[in-house]
Amino acid sequence: MDFFSAGLGLACLSFVLGLAWRVHGRPGSRLPAAPEQDRRKSGLAAGLADIILLRRTLRSGKVRWAGHMLLILGFLPLLVLHAMDGIVTRPLFSGYEPTLEPWQSARNILGLAALAGLALLAWHRGRRLLPLSRFQDWALPGLLASILLTGFLLEAAKMASPADFERMVADYFPEADSEEFLALQALWARENGVRFERFLPTAPEILEHGRELHEDRCAGCHAPTATAFASRALADALPARIVLPRTVPPIFWHLHVGLSFLALALLPWGKFLHPLASSANLVARGGRRDSGFPATALGRNLALEACTRCGQCSLHCSVAPSRRVLGNADILPMDKLADLRSWLDRSLDDARLTDLVEGSHVCTECLRCTQVCPAGIDLQDLWMSSKAALSEEGRAGVDGEFRKRTAGEWALDLGSRRLGGVGSSGTGLADRAESFWGCVQCTTCTGVCPVVAVSTDPQRDLDLTPQQIMNYLRMGLKAQTLGARMVWSCTTCYKCQEHCPQGVPVADILYELRQLGARTLRHKGKP
Amino acid sequence: MRYAYFPGCKIAHHLPAHGMSVEAVCDRLGIGLERTEFACCGYPVRHESQDASVYSALRGLAQAQSMGLDLMTPCKCCFGNFQHASHQVSQDENLKLRMKNLLDEERLPFPETVRVRHLLQVLDDSLDTVSKAVTRPLRNLRLACHYGCHALRPAAVTHFDDPLAPTVFERVAAATGAVPLPWELRLECCGYPLRGRDESISDLLMAKKLSGAAASGADVLATACTYCQLQFGRGGGIPSVLFPQLLGLALGLSPEALGLAPDAPWLGRLEKE
Amino acid sequence: MKTYDVMVIGSGFAGMAASLFAAKRGLSVVQAGGTGGIDFSTGFIDLMAVHPVAEQRVWEDPFAALAALRKDLPLHPYAHVADDEIGAALEEFTAFLGNNGLCYTGRPGRNTLALTSAGTVKPTYLLPCSAWGGVEALEAKAPTLLVDFHGLKGISARQIAEVRADWPGLRTARVRFPGMGGELYPEHMAWSMADQARRTELAEAVRPLLGNARFVGFPAIFGMTDTMAVVGHMEELLGRRVFEIPTLPPSIAGPRLRAAFDRGLPALGVRTYTQKLVSAAEVSGEMFHFTAGSGSTAVRIAARGAVLAGGRFFGKGLKADRHAVREAVFDLPVRQPEKREDWHRAEFFDPRGHEINQAGLETDAALRPLGADGQPFHPRLHAAGAILAHQDWMRMKCGAGLAIATACKAVRELSQNL
Predict the structure, then answer these.
(1) Fold (CATH) for B2-118
(2) Which of B90, B155, B182 is nearest residue C263 as measured by Cβ atoms?
(3) Residue C78 contacts by C-beta under 8 Å, 6 or more apart in sequence?
(4) Fewer Cβ neighbours under 10 Å: the N or C end of chain B?
């Protein structure tokens, strides 16, 4: 078994297995079930248009659109017509040889276009997406670029390689005598960029002779190498005295082919799959830019795989300011989606799960990421269904955590800790004596509270009433209040603060307690 | 009059009819709405972090100030949080400094001059224009106007109307020709803030309001906040309608243009044109 | 900025009365104030009942008491208001309350002894109609059942019965309040009484205990608005006369009054700035400029005349530090004991009361507060209510009546100068 067959076989195996693993039905089962929806046939055309014209990508930026278009228009034909020429091009075009025109110039044009596209995308990522980028975001364009570059280098090396020339003559013109050989050499050195060790004559009659022989023996399969203009430029750029050892072209060949197989093998992993997965998702979405909540399990599977990590969602996210303050990357959609996938795979560690839960709850479901996503992912549906799924599994955010234990249990736990001051400055209202100087425990705040009003037993339902909480706080007993249901079931209507005859900021203080609770949970276990 | 238009996060997916009706009404009344990409006002995150909430709000205000416009929002929670943020930075120098630093990093000015208005206030400011623009007075329609909480209280921060005896909503509603009725629970909370936190109390608060409104004899409960409408839209009994939709009808716009189902029963109370 | 005829500073009895009277006379009125004192009201409207305070002599005829008062204490604010004006003011005030869902009653020219939650009786002039049954029961010593509730603090039927040993027909019972458990709060109980089903449940719980009682007394929880409808229904259900006893403050009497004002005053065109305290005042010859509230939400108000009815310490009309009492808006001179040590007598329950309770603003006959020179501070600034000096409203049992009467006089005098 040779390198090519082994490599291709392994790469295909990796691709198939990886793809199977990637799309086997795991995510949908953990999100709340959605009924089957009717397939929108009318959307198919819109979905295809989204793919072919990259309409959504265009909406999110011209640079990204141009980069993608160049890359796709360059790379896809290379993939089909060059990499798969044995099964595609050769049967379709009789007399095909990769060294003939238009294939040589086509390869070079397409290769350059693809490289230009990659350059644009890399420039864009470096300028706008640097903080959001991880290894795989550079690895994919890097791998593609290296395939293209090694391709050019391979072609250039083959052009310049004397060993290849000798091999070709041995195969196709074995009967050449030394004079003919010299003439052919001279021609190829002059016109096709081969770098021979010895100095070759340039006399017109020798070149003419060479040309005749070339026409007779070579031209049937070889267009002038100058048509492969980019590779030729590389070959010509070799310093004058350098002669490529015979090992060089094979090295580049193994690199070029090996990297291509690597790309095929890696296709199911991370964002490498997005050309296939995002296209599938775009078809499924049928051009819709709003949310189809609740989506079907299949729709959700496609959505979860389709992320290209382009970062547009995170750039436009409505709660990005909260991300800046709280520092949790999972507040932004791109990273939240990745961690959501991991959670659904049951491969998310607890610390990241906490981040995911916070991100889930900070999200305001504003629909913007869904509208912006170039891959057409129905993010809104994922956020809304995952919020419910996380709650079902007992991860319902700060509020849910506090409700898991009684007020007394929290008092015992927190009473032994240094809670720190309330308010972000640590000098909030609840820690200041002046806030409570006016409190005469008149119970007006409790009397106007609508939450107390609908409770049939405030002690049982709420643990403490507002004026009782004020009483604890003016004695400095924050820990005793943090777990009280009243704090977490306050509906923030501000009637207490408005009606207090003595100006005690009851509702503001309850907010501070919730903020302190959130901060305490965030730092639990961390120094 | 032009405003920086701040719809708030909940309109796009959860209540697009609110955005539709606000924009339609403002267009008809000549109230200019400038749009830009705003982030969340910071109201929901206030439970978790004061800094995140205040920064979110100040950022929005800074954007409006950069546009040279006052900010107008149809959501009372957004309105309230903007006012809270301004108030909090005026009380806490350390907070103000932290916010200035965050805004500097985004090359945004610290908002000093921008005013925040709720849609009802904007309408109240030009009540004559509204009255004159009414082509189809909602004469037989009795309204229970729901004030909700976050714009109204605490008045020392929000400066919206008298917190115990407010009149702006009824005044503006009357300009449409409709009949606002007095009802005792009009200033009580709708209960939406407890959705996802304490569903049973949220349900109880909602039910109380709806039955109070129904008992007043009103045909319709009128809301002027995205959250309040989302809450009452769940309940049964008296139909809950956004005030911009009512106003739009009075201005002669079609139910479809306002996101209303044309076969809503209460529409039958209106005089045929 | 609109210029109003009258700025009313204060949202208690005096402020509300001033706004009412001014609006009724066609003046444009703006009012600012907080819920300081009124939330702690018992709901009774006292006119004049105890004089001299040191002897704790209780008068049956408030107008006779007034006559004696004016003779003995010529500096008392009542000296500036005539009886007929007092009577008319009270009528107009209670009519307003009646129109806004709060029914009041009393005996013209006679004080009434009303039952308190401590079991004592206090003389008062006008009572909520929902409490009148208690008066009748008390006077007739009729067989009566007093009901209180598990978990409701601020009233004890048993204590009332023990204190009123002179009323053998008084029985007590404690029941569960329908639909509520644990600690109870009067305001929430009152709101729940708006529900017919609740009332029926309550009647079911009480009926077996009625025995031969002709009257049934409850803590004041019968609805926040339209109390008489709720009481009427209870009477129907129980087949007995039903009455309310106000709980210890803050009872729902205060919120009921507030709600009536909040309903009725804006309807008369009064511009209200509730929960905003007047923080500054500038005076020129023609105009007052007030700042109400503080910080970014402060409002500027311009008015031609003003009635200062800010109340005393709890109402924030007067401010005391450890050394002196100051008036909060204009910094008017406050009549007060010369020395700090003289503020209080040695015994808290000294029947003469304490000198500090009589501190306040001194005025001319038109109720205009005096400046440092002993002359009215401003021709169109008047004062009314508890902020006035030379009165001890708690011990004299003259609080609400004084507030309403002086407000009426102040507005009348002011309107003549506008």
Answers:
(1) Glutathione S-transferase Yfyf (Class Pi); Chain A, domain 2 (1.20.1050)
(2) B182
(3) C48, C66, C69, C70, C86, C391, C398, C402, C405
(4) C
| Cβ–Cβ below 8 Å for A367 and B37 | no
**pLDDT digits over C152-202, tens only?**
998 999 999 999 999 999 999 999 999 888 889 999 999 999 888 999 999
Enumerate domains of chain A plus CATH numbers.
287-395 (no CATH), 402-522 (1.10.1060)
Q: Which residue type does A448 have? A: V
C196 touches chain B (CB under 8 A): no
Angle between helix A229-236 and helix A103-128 axes, rounded to 10 deg: 80
**Average pLDDT over every residue of B46-59:** 96
User: Which residue has 């959860």 as its token pair?
Assistant: B14
Taking Cα atoms as reference points, which of B104, B242, B114 lies closest to residue B173? B242
CATH class, B130-269 region? alpha beta
Closest-CA residue of chain A to B98: A425
pLDDT value at A430 more than 80: yes
Q: How many CB atoms lie within 10 A of CB A226?
A: 16
pLDDT at residue A527, as a whole number: 38
Element (H, E) at A291: none
Q: Which pairing describes strands B70-73 and B142-145: parallel, antiparallel, or unpaired?
A: unpaired
Q: Is the ipTM of this complex over 0.90?
A: yes
pLDDT, mean of residues A48-63: 88
Chain B residues with CB under 8 Å of A380 CB are 13
Report the alpha-carbon distance of residue A194 to residue A249 in Å, rounded.
Answer: 13
Instruction: Count the alpha carbons within 13 Å of B62 in the hemisphere toward its beta carbon.
Output: 20
Burial C161-198 (b: 16+ CB within 10 A, else e): bebbeebebbbbbebebbebbebbbbbbbbbbbbeeeb
CB contact under 8 A, C183 and A460: no
CATH of the domain at C279: 3.50.50.60
How far apart (Å, rounded) are the C-alpha atoms in residues C25 and C43? 26
Which range has the worst mean pLDDT, A95-99, A443-447, C75-79?
A: A95-99
Identify whether the C-beta of residue B51 lies closer than 8 Å to the C-beta of residue A325: yes
Q: Select the residue of A371, A424, A511 nearest B51 (Cβ to Cβ).
A: A424
Tens of pLDDT along A254-269? 999 999 999 999 998 8
As a whole number of angstroms, the distance between CA B89 and CA B96 comes to 5
pTM attached to this predicted model: 0.88
B32: tokens are 């200019």
| Domain region containing C224 | 117-245
By percentage, how much of chain B surpasses pLDDT 70? 99
> Is A499 within 8 Å of C188 when comparing Cβ atoms?
no
- Provide the 8-state DSSP code for C58: B
Mean pLDDT (chain C) is 94
B96-135: per-residue pLDDT in tens? 999 999 999 999 999 999 999 999 999 999 999 999 999 9
Q: Measure the CA angle with vertex C98, ends C96 and C103; round to 5°.
A: 140
Which chains neighbour B (Cβ–Cβ under 8 Å, 3 or more pairs)? A, C
Residues, chain A: 527
Q: What is the pLDDT of residue A30?
A: 64
